[in-house]
Amino acid sequence: MSLSMALNVAKSSLQTSGVQTATTSRNIAGGAESSYSRKSATVITGIGGTVQVVSIERATNTALYKTMLKATSASAKQDALLDGLTKMAQTIDDPELNQSPAAKLGDLNNKLQQYAANPSNTILAQAVQSSATALATTLNEATTTVQATRALADADMATSVQRINDLLVKIDTLNTTIVHGTVTGADVTDSLDSRDNLISQLSEEIGISVVSRDNNDVAIYTDGGVALFETHPREVSFQATNIFNAATVGNAVYVDGVAVVGGTSSMASTSGRLAGLATLRDEAGVTYQSQLDEIARGLIEAFAESDPSGTGPDVPGLFTWPTGTIPATATIETGLAGLIAVNPAIDPTAGGNLDLIRDGITYDYNTTDEAGFAERLNALVTELGEARVFDAASGADPTNTLADYATSSASWLEFNRQQVDTSATYQSTMLQRASEALSNNTGVNLDDELSKQLEIERTYAASAKLISAVDEMLQDLLNAV
């Protein structure tokens, strides 16, 4: 090997070592960031043994990355759903506190039995009136809680859509930089990391699939197959609903006019925070509200008064609602739980008479005005213990006593909350494992990087020593001339 060739080899080695040192230093500095991927310099050997860095590459694992995105979406959905179900579970509270509709109904039944055993006792009549009022109030407040939960889910959907649009704009900017840099041969590895991080954040809001294209370009689709990003971002739109009641139907989320979350869609997204919020707003919240409404309907039906002569219509008794009619049997009357109230005719503070609980409000069952008349009260106790038919669409036990139906409603809510809680824990564990696997595969190992740096330093020292030796040889040649 000639001296000039040896000098070229040493110089190229020094230059390569410099780039490699910068790369390992970059890895050490960025290793603490979860979104940072390990970088490496690609070195080739040229003519005469010279070496050079032709590119900077980053560690990737497409399969693990896609698994992590899927786990992120699944976990976000369950977390959103669990949060809402936990809020609605406040309506049943701790069973030992007896604050649920089922507990209040049981208390009313007990008070009614006590009053039936001593129908002349005004204090017991007052206890029935107070217990009935507490039950109606519990149903009213439960409706308020459910609708507030649905309204919050709707508002959170609007926030989620805004975040999706913001992320898509940022992804668009980075993607343009990446494609241009790839074409021109620039180092785009940090930009690729940043884009992956943004895509990961996007997967929290909606389930997605990512398709790689030429020049490091990407296309992003929802898990239902609707394009979110192809060269440029698509418009994601949602009209929030400001006021919610039991009859309110929330709006769907659209991507370029195609419904992807909420409403009906053949290309619906089934994972991500948006899907969880929509499930809470449109399914869990609506179903539980239906159960509350059926409890209210059952109360009005059980305490209804019938004309003893058989000529008049059945009318509300102890419990009533604004229409003053008996709701249709086994049919959900949407929002009834928020409207049910104790008949003011038996409320002394409203000018009513407690004795009408015993004697009848619209129809007179106690025609002889006996203070010890218990027939009507005993009939009410019996009616509460009778099996009745509920709307099967409500999701609770459709053929049972009112008390058992109320209990099955509480069980339905708690069972679903526990199921989602278990699923949320599982999905969180899966996300953690997927993230760890990706990090172990593409992240930075500090010990490895420090070892590489030592190797590079040795190579650098050897190259410097070679240059020094060549310099001495050249100097000897010059001195010999």
TrEMBL record:
<dbReference type="InterPro" id="IPR002371">
    <property type="entry name" value="FlgK"/>
</dbReference>
<keyword id="KW-0964">Secreted</keyword>
<dbReference type="InterPro" id="IPR010930">
    <property type="entry name" value="Flg_bb/hook_C_dom"/>
</dbReference>
<keyword id="KW-0969">Cilium</keyword>
<keyword id="KW-0975">Bacterial flagellum</keyword>
<feature type="domain" description="Flagellar hook-associated protein FlgK helical">
    <location>
        <begin position="102"/>
        <end position="310"/>
    </location>
</feature>
<dbReference type="InterPro" id="IPR053927">
    <property type="entry name" value="FlgK_helical"/>
</dbReference>
<protein>
    <recommendedName>
        <fullName>Flagellar hook-associated protein 1</fullName>
    </recommendedName>
</protein>
<dbReference type="Pfam" id="PF06429">
    <property type="entry name" value="Flg_bbr_C"/>
</dbReference>
<dbReference type="GO" id="GO:0009424">
    <property type="term" value="C:bacterial-type flagellum hook"/>
</dbReference>
<keyword id="KW-0282">Flagellum</keyword>
<dbReference type="GO" id="GO:0005576">
    <property type="term" value="C:extracellular region"/>
</dbReference>
<dbReference type="GO" id="GO:0005198">
    <property type="term" value="F:structural molecule activity"/>
</dbReference>
<dbReference type="GO" id="GO:0044780">
    <property type="term" value="P:bacterial-type flagellum assembly"/>
</dbReference>
<feature type="domain" description="Flagellar basal-body/hook protein C-terminal">
    <location>
        <begin position="441"/>
        <end position="479"/>
    </location>
</feature>
<dbReference type="Pfam" id="PF22638">
    <property type="entry name" value="FlgK_D1"/>
</dbReference>
<keyword id="KW-0966">Cell projection</keyword>
<comment type="similarity">
    <text>Belongs to the flagella basal body rod proteins family.</text>
</comment>
